[in-house]
Please model this.
Amino acid sequence: MVTAYVLVVLLNVSSAPDGPGSSSSTVLVFQGPSVTYSRPDTLSDVFAPVEGGDSVQACARTSSGWTGFDPGTAQAGNAGSFRYRWIPPGTRFTTEVDTSLLPVVWAPEAGVTYAQSFYPVEVHSLPDIMSPVTGTMPQTSAAAIVFRTGEWYLVDLARGPAPRSCVGWISAVEVSVSGDLEKVARRGIWRAFLSVLTE
Model:
């Protein structure tokens, strides 16, 4: 077996990562106690502590050196890299496969609440289904929720796996949410837009 370390590798980010159980996944065995996280940032929630000898199925990595693994739990509301839990850079483990072969993926930021799409979702200029469509959130993509009002979210598609210059409203019933929605401010329509434009 080959001893491996999580290294920082600067590569292009893929917006369509392979999922858990894909042909590019590999089993990692921890060499000692460590901590895994819900997102690839030590400021995010701890997912679970691990001990030496524990193993996980690694599926992806980030450009900042984190390794994503399949947590082995049902995740009906998650897609893409939201399905992974994360091993920090520098964690020691053994593996029979070179981890540099794992796909490099976009990953969610700590503290940000995201809307996730499972099919293309129209982005509107106002929180009204009859308002003009200004863009589309792609299938199995995500965008940061900036504000919310009623059953609508103001999202920023520049902060997601398929970044594009588009800020607008999506219906809450068309997406799932990852993160703490209660921390997303409720704003009136125009106040919300003004806040985004002046950031």
In short: Residues 1-23 have pLDDT under 50 and may be disordered.
